[in-house]
Design a protein that fits this description.
This protein is an alpha/beta fold. It has 2 domains: about 240 residues, 3-Layer(aba) Sandwich (Aspartate Aminotransferase, domain 2); about 90 residues, Aspartate Aminotransferase, domain 1. It has 13 helices and 11 strands. The strands form 2 sheets. The protein has a 7-stranded mixed sheet with strand order 1-7-6-5-4-2-3, sandwiched between helices. The chain has a 4-stranded antiparallel sheet with strand order 8-9-11-10. Strand 4, helix 7 and strand 5 form a beta-alpha-beta unit. Helix 2 runs parallel beside helix 10 and helix 8 crosses helix 11.
Length: about 350
């Protein structure tokens, strides 16, 4: 009953098999191999346009490199106040961009409110030398609260951003979970909705360690190869990253894994909703459940073997506190049911 994170899960067998196959013989280094070439073609087919693909090892690197490609050192990146880039990346976007400022913006369910974004942009007037200049907007899909932006919600934010000439980045660490929830083609919720560049995640959903920066605007891709090398993320044996991502996309594996994780979160939330004294913050759309539990129940669940992280939220007190429960492609119905039995007492 490990609900600490989808990062706690292992790697999908199909991806491990792909690594074994990639290990046979020799291959050109630094991304000049055939596996990486095939991966670029596969991403372009999947997104229905020509995509520049830059595999990296971590989501933090993908986000930081992507935002650095959009933002000068005197620029600003508009993000949600709960965004991973703002809260959990130890200043990497600021460092990779040479000092660009992250400007947090509010919004319910960890989704940026277009009106709040417009107000935040208005507070940083263009051309005033005393202020950082807004250069990019970043959104997380699915969000840090397990909610999902609809296509129309993305388009509304893009419209505000474009009004100030901003490029738009998507942190897609859990993109597969969001896409499964939306049931739309990848293109519809990315470049067709106005996304210029995205961090495409696979590690949380069955890869060993594989992410990619996907660039839909060719102009933005010009310097990324140099930025990646300078940041230490150009792997000499790139085929082992590309092999993971290629297997991830083959025969819809990525969506099947995400659909299972989402279904397990829905099962968990549904069961918890029927137990007195438990308060679910949001109906999960992806694979994260945020729930306020009595302190005594938290203790009982931990003693019973359940693992999860505390997640302080407004309204918590000495009697009840919020925890985050994350499901993965490896989560089983039996684990969910055992957790629910413990919760029900």
């Amino acid at each position: 009953m490990d609900f600490t994170s989808d990062n706690a899960a292992g790697a999908a067998p199909e991806i491990l098999d792909a690594l074994t196959r990639a290990n046979g013989g020799t291959a050109a280094s630094y991304g000049a191999d055939e596996v990486t070439a095939r991966l670029t073609r596969r991403f372009s087919e999947l997104f229905e346009c020509e995509v520049a693909v830059f595999p990296v090892v971590t989501g933090t690197a993908a986000n930081a490199l992507a935002l650095a490609a959009l933002t000068p050192s005197h620029g600003a990146v508009m993000c949600h106040e709960l965004a991973h880039v703002h809260v959990d990346e130890c200043g990497a976007p600021e460092m990779f961009s040479g000092g660009a400022k992250l400007v947090p913006v509010g919004g319910a369910a960890a989704k940026i409110d277009p009106r709040a974004l417009a107000a935040a942009l208005a507070s940083l007037p263009a051309g005033v030398v005393h202020h950082v200049q807004p250069s990019a907007l970043t959104i997380t899909q699915s969000t840090e609260m397990g909610s999902v932006y609809s296509v129309s919600e993305i388009e509304a934010l893009v419209e505000v951003a474009r009004g100030r000439g901003l490029h738009v980045h998507m942190d897609g660490a859990r993109f597969a979970n969001a896409l499964t929830a939306l049931d739309v083609p990848p293109a519809a919720v990315t470049w067709k909705a106005g996304i210029d560049i995205m961090s495409f995640g696979a590690t949380k959903n069955g890869a060993l360690a594989a992410e990619a920066v996907l660039v839909f605007d060719p102009e933005l891709a010009k310097d990324l190869s140099f930025r990646r090398k300078r940041a230490g993320h150009l792997l000499s044996k790139m085929r082992f990253l590309s092999a993971q991502l290629e297997a991830y996309l083959t025969d819809g594996l990525w969506l099947r894994l995400a659909a299972h994780a989402n279904a397990m979160a829905a099962r968990l939330a549904s069961g918890l909703a029927g137990i007195a004294g438990i308060d679910i913050h949001l109906t999960p759309q992806a694979n994260e459940v945020f729930v306020r539990l009595p302190v005594a129940l938290i203790k009982r669940l931990r003693e019973g073997g359940a693992r999860f992280h505390p997640w302080p939220m407004p309204g918590d007190d000495e009697q009840a506190r919020t925890v985050r429960l994350v499901t993965s492609f490896q989560t089983t119905a039996a684990e969910i049911d055992r957790f629910l039995d413990l919760a029900a007492g």
